Amino acid sequence: MKRSPADTYALIIAELVGNEFQLEISARVGANILSFQTVPASPQGDAGLDGFSHAGAQAYCCYGPEHHTYKTNKQREKALIKKFCGDLRKLFELETKGKNLIHKDNPELPTILPKGQKIRRIKLIANWFESHRVIGPILTAVAEYKNASALNFVAADVDVIIAGPTEIANDYPVDELTLARAQQRTFLQKIVASAGALTITDPKDFDSKMQTLREMQPEQADNITALAESLRADWRMSLAFERELGDALPALHETLEVARTQIITRVRILTIGAADPAVHISGATTIAGEILEKDLGKQYGLIIGSVATGEVARLIGECTLGWKKRPVHDAT
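Now predict its structure.
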């Protein structure tokens, strides 16, 4: 039996974890509720809120733990209860002291919510919700929090709802764009995990060029070191991307190879007329981004920026993009 778009979407987002899960939930809700506002964690944390809508009357809290972290459903239940109760205590401005609940100011909430607004509904969204045993403990905690809280930011009759992938999938219609976006996120998540395990086998030319760059611009040594680390990370992303396409999508892997040839040709043209390595790097990155976006951006827009920078790092390491230390002239 063919799955419905909603069922397919639920399966996809159930695989997302961490920031990718939160980003997808924000994109899903934001596409359907125009008043949805994400809450950045900077500068002092998100105050327990990942987003809100309806001028602050509805709050959203997300939780997407790594699936391998918990071996049993009981462990998942405990983790979900612990995480969401912690978020709720922040919203109710409470902390535990022994067996008691005491007031603890949440100074970030006034900087997030509109003045005078109180939260009337809280939606707790997790990438796993396959046990009803989380409902009772969370709602029991909510009742306790209402009694102990000064209710500065939460209404006395606030509703708390728990939702998982199936509920989120069924909240609004699922179209092709929604599925494509979620699939990109799962692909990106897989690539990031794969890249973390990769080792660049022979980075000698890359390292020597970075050292040359530090010698040419000693006042920028720290920035160049940081740049080198970023380039290395994106190089691994590019390698993981290439490997995944080669294993699963040979037609798109061929597209990548054609794009690489175009990048090399244009980068060679660039380096003929530019002696400054900084121009090499920034110009080559622009070229790689434009070509990859044109050929692969529709399918993999979320990752193309990192792949483009990774391709430039590869060109540095393979000597396609090179430079030499400028000679020092004696002023006497």
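The two ends are 84 Å apart (CA to CA).
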